[in-house]
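Discussion board: Methods & Data

I've been asked by a reviewer to show the raw model output for two of the constructs in my manuscript, not just the figures. I'm not sure how much to include, so I'm pasting the format here to get opinions. Each protein appears as its amino acid sequence followed by a line of discrete structure tokens. Is this the kind of thing reviewers expect to see in a supplement, or should I convert it first? Here is construct A:
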Amino acid sequence: MPDASSSSLLASTRKSGAVGLLLIVGALLAVSILIAKAAPSVGWHPLSLLQWSMLGSAVLMYARVAFTRPPLVLSARFLGFSLVSGVLFALPNALGFAAAQHIGVGFVTLSMAFPLVITYALAVSLGLEKINAIKCAGVVSGVIGAVLLSLSKNFLEGDLNFWIIASLCAPVLLSIGNIFRSRYWPHGVPPAHLSLSMMAFGFLTLVCLTGILGMPIAPTVWSLNAGGLLLAQTLVFTLLYDLYFRLQHLAGPVYLSQIGSVSAVIGALLAYAFFAEIPSTLGYLAILFVGLGVYAVSRPTNATR
């Protein structure tokens, strides 16, 4: 049996690996939203770009999984899990990608910090986490940040009102997805298989959504820029969601939800660098309250489950 020192080393290694994955996944999430913001400039509708990027990513993931062990097994439990995961993945991404065109990359990426506090609240209500006063204060801080974030983008303007609400619905759906995957993760199925199936069912979900809404399925004109953007988003998705499932498998849903805070910070920097989106005073206050909420919810405690 391993001694105390080897167990401590293993725990430290796992923690370091989780932190590294967290930073990479959060950064890739911000980049994917930035690409969505650029989609219309090269003729893509953001949802069409999202749809075909998911398909391309699923194909690349399958090419890797097909030559590794264990083999992919399409059981009823696996397919059911994949269907729900795909829907809970596609819908919030569709909301975020579409909203980025109307309210900015900075706002959308900052709203992605909220899944941490929402996931924690859901985990407590379902008995997956113990209630903690400091973490509860973090949830309240996150809610205050959400209100300030809404006000910072002229919430009372009718056209923007819908997209602000849509953007803030996305983290709720992401949080539900985080909890669902942890609670119903099929026993013995590797993360790579689940990320592949989630992308495949996410693609099918968007096919239905874009068909119902009558959206174009291709760019207005195929060009080198349009094809390059599709390739870039496909590659980002392939790496992002492979690591995303590895992080959840390693550290759990609440820790995974911290990717939003990493994405928010990096996204704000990218939005300023590429789109000159400068946060307002309320925006800076929102960042402060969200940051306090993230810290309070994610800080380690001595409580045991």
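Construct B, same format:
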Amino acid sequence: MTRLLALCADDFGLAPGISTGIARLARAQRLTAVSCITNSPYWADAAKLLAGLPDSVDLGLHLNFTEGRPLSARLARRWPRLPGLPRLILQAHLGALPRSEMRNEVHAQLAAFTRAVGKAPSFIDGHQHVHHLPTLRDIILDMVEHVQPLPALRSTAPVLGPGYAVKRWLIERTGGRALAQALRQRVLAHNPALLGVYDFAAPDYRALMQRWLAALPAQGGLLFCHPGERAGGDPPDPIGAARLREAAYLGSAAFEADLAAAGVSLGRVWRTAGQPQGIKASRAA
């Protein structure tokens, strides 16, 4: 039986080169989902690249609370710049996040997506997995139930794959398990498992992909990736080299060969508890 893999490119809108590289792969049907950062100064121009993408590609909101500036004036008064991930995690687990201002920012980023794309996101997740953190998790889950059509959410547990056990453990324990439980309780569509965790320094992305494909469970899973290109005027990018490696492999014949060898097809895997795996989408061309 063919297993399904949803392949989601994160960080669309973060920089021109990243957006161009992701859009190129999406048009070639090498992705099943694109997750968009809407509080970036590059978002308005990047959103134009989403027009005319294949129907097999879902467009989602990549909520950002760790890079750049807030969109909402209320949160900007508290945080002129968004905190880094360690500070956000600490404040979330101490119950010290400004709940009202965070709620306002979540709605502002959602509104920016809807204005530019012309429809609600098909799914919602978080830059650096912030959507599973305490306080933010509850704000997002409550907001999602008022969005129509109801979007799916990226579950961050269980996290499967080769190596990087500490990083996978941290993702699950900082909020991934709690989010997965809440998604089941609220009967919200989500991915059965998450793959794609590594340190962005490994030089052989193909070898990692082959091991992720081997670890893919029968019910399917979602693999998040960070492909991109370089463009003039792009801001400094600490994982720029990794983005280039990922884009080169995902656009290659080797990726298609690895999918076939593993008995895996690209497709949607969003489902609620008890439902069968999602609708099959086009295979990589």
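Answer (T.O., handling editor elsewhere):
This is acceptable in a supplement if you add a one-line summary per construct. For B, something like: The first strand starts at residue 3 and ends at 12.
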